[in-house]
Amino acid sequence: MEFAMAVDPVDTLMHLLLALAIGLVIGIERGWQDRDMPEGQRLAGVRTFALLGLLGGGATLLASHLGGWMVGISFLGVCALLIAGYLASPLDQDRSLTTLVAALLVFVLGGLAVHGHALAASTSAVIGLLILSYKPTLHHWLHGLERQELSAGIQLLLISVVMLPLLPNQGYGPWQILNPYRIWWMVVIIALISFAGYFAIRIIGARRGLLATGLFGGLASSTAVTLHLSRLGKKLPRLQGAIASGILLACGTMYLRMMLVVALLHDRLLADLWLPVSAMALLTYAPILFYWRHGEEPAMPVASMVKNPLELVTAIGFGLLLMLVTVLGAFLRETFGDAGLFTLATVSGVADVDAVVLSLIAMARESLSADVFVKACVLAAATNSVVKAGLASSVGGLNLALRVAAPLLGAALLGVVLVFA
Asked: Which of 75, 84, 116, 375 has the least C-beta neighbours within 10 A?
């Protein structure tokens, strides 16, 4: 196999210098990590890494004349030398494989640089350098990761990387309304947003109080946040200003989440949707500053509202709900026109906004007008806000109801007036 490379000597020299630089920067990081070890006991130091980068580049350069086997033989030789050094190191020494693997990476990236893939080599070197230098942070995250969160991450990969590409991208069923690929892609989008919201609560909200919890909890589940904080408000009446702020922030974020979903899946609809939904969000957010300034900030951490970032059964259940709402929406629209669709949006908003919004997006791709889409979305969101106002009032008591219900009901009324007036 022949290696086709640039014959310009200046380019060749620059590529070799890049290979040298890659070895130097990774060698400096490895040398700093092992700086307390006695001289001569390190598996590889700065000079060794720099030379390995040059060796990878030189082997690749020779391969353009002698054949690709030259790189393979050189790589095997480097592996043998590193393994021998690893085995010869004292038994009481930290014998991590990280430095050995980093050395092999430098050889490969040096070869990539000389072969003409300078951008790929330099980018990979920087990413490798970050992974090496952030060892304490990565280990801290790993120790803080719970089993259910690891399982949720694997399940998210399963539904997105494995299941999604296998689904047919064509319509089935009545009116050809059921497209398995599009429906599952919407499930993946919602799962990703909820996943991000969950970990934002874990990383930020649980340490920094109710406002951060409300903001990121609204991405995961504003209804769950409302229920949890309403119960908390019942137990801690002196903190009801801060608790009301958290509830309103979560409920307002629900509107932003709706716009985010529309922007990701059918951005042309956002031009008609953003004004009424933004107005609803602003009215929900409006009292937060007043409540917060006249309340006390809680000193204790707030537990995560969402106990599991993602469950496969829940994702499948949401997909089935989405299919049901999609078919029912198409049927009601065919039978009763737009009025049937508005009824469905209102009823669906009692339990879930995402399913009806995603169903409406699917219809808008076919024939649903932007005006009807916006009206139906606002009706679903308004109904959901009314339900959460009732939930906060019944669970949190009269004092919390007075703080939360008025903004939520006002936002619902404002949205309906803006789109139907």
From this structure: 84
Cα–Cα distance measured from residue 184 to residue 159, given in angstroms and rounded to the nearest whole number: 8
CA gap 420, 117 in Å, rounded: 58
- Residue 319 C-alpha from the chain's centroid: 20
Q: Which residues pair with 178 in a beta bridge?
A: 172
Measure the CA–CA gap between 412 and 383, rounded to whole angstroms: 7
Q: Is the dihedral of CA 392, 394, 397, 399 positive or negative?
A: positive
Q: Which residues are within 8 A (CB) of 349 and not within 5 positions of it... i.e. 6 or more apart?
A: 356, 379, 380, 381, 382, 383, 384, 387
Q: What is the DSSP code string of 135-186?
A: HHHHHHHHHH--HHHHHHHHHHHIIIIIIHHHS--S-BSGGG-B-HHHHHHH
Taken in order 91, 97, 99, 103, is the CA torsion positive or negative?
Answer: positive
Q: List, in sequence order, the alpha helices (H) in 7-97.
A: 9-33, 46-66, 69-88
Angle, helix 240-265 to helix 210-235, in steps of 10 degrees: 130
Taking the CA of residue 320 as centre, how many other CA atoms within 13 Å lie in the half-sphere pointing to its CB? Answer: 6
122 and 53 in contact (C-beta within 8 Å)?
no
8 A C-beta contact, residue 306 and residue 221:
yes
Q: Long-range contacts made by residues 149-155, C-beta under 8 angstroms, separation at least 24?
A: 149/199, 149/202, 149/309, 152/195, 152/198, 152/308, 152/309, 152/310, 152/311, 153/195, 153/309, 153/310, 155/310, 155/311, 155/312, 155/315
User: Each residue of 389-418: pLDDT tens digit?
Assistant: 888 888 887 888 888 889 999 999 999 999
Spatial contact of 22 and 110, defined as CB atoms under 8 Å apart? yes
